[in-house]
Amino acid sequence: MAELLSWLKERAKDDLLLWADQLSAANRFKISVREVEGVALENGLLPARYQRNRNMFCLDDQLKFYRSKVTVIGCGGLGGYIIEELARLGVGTIVAVDPDVFEEHNMNRQLLATPDFLGIKKVAAAARRVDRVNPAVELLPVGLAFSRDNGKQILEGSQVAVDALDSIAVRLELAEVCQDLGIPLVHGAIAGWYGYLMTQFPGERTLQKFFSHNSQEGGLEKQLGNPSFTPAVVASLEVAEACKILLNRGTLARRRCLSIDLYDMEFVEIEC
């Protein structure tokens, strides 16, 4: 690795490593661009794609992202945007969980849904998208329905779980598995013009309390539908929460729920 590091430093522009040089290094030294990225970040070089991050995140922060593992449960309306933003942020390992394939009705709002991907597993589409957006990120596709039975295996080693589900029953199972494993959970939900956001740490039962009187299997989304913009807004808020958890900074939406009304443009906190 000493030869690789010397090669990278010779080509770096100040402390920035251009993508062309990252790719050349991978080809020259017969390693992945992901490995090149790790060596660069560990030795004070910032891949140039992240240079607009640096006024918010220092090099050590970027290295934390690279070493992080985040699991996204659901690859539809919310999940597609969440995966995209985590990959562009530089989160090193993303586990994408979803049993479904893309259908035409997904195409009005789901970032990963394109004519080319109709009939394709959502997790396979997510893997292909991440490989194009940021090849230094590893996307681990899990084409299964999340449950209490497989949840611990799916979430093993993750620092954060991000809820992009459309089933209240399954998200409650997700909350219980996160509790058992000691993993923070970022919850988001969408329906029509509206959305919800909350973050739950082990020992808290905010999500369970919030849904204690609501047993609707599919929630309001099946009644109100969703346009293109609501998933993008709520997903971005979820990624912001995940980012703060990974860096251990900022104020999180804990023990409260943020109610989002894009029709009247109102954001209301609900104590839980």
TrEMBL record:
Pfam family, one: ThiF
Domain THIF-type NAD/FAD binding fold, first and last residues per copy: 50-270
GO molecular function annotation: tRNA threonylcarbamoyladenosine dehydratase; ubiquitin-like modifier activating enzyme activity
InterPro entries according to UniProt: ThiF/MoeB/HesA, ThiF_NAD_FAD-bd, Ubiquitin-activating_enz
Record GO biological process: cyclic threonylcarbamoyladenosine biosynthetic process
Protein's UniProt name: Thiamine biosynthesis protein ThiF
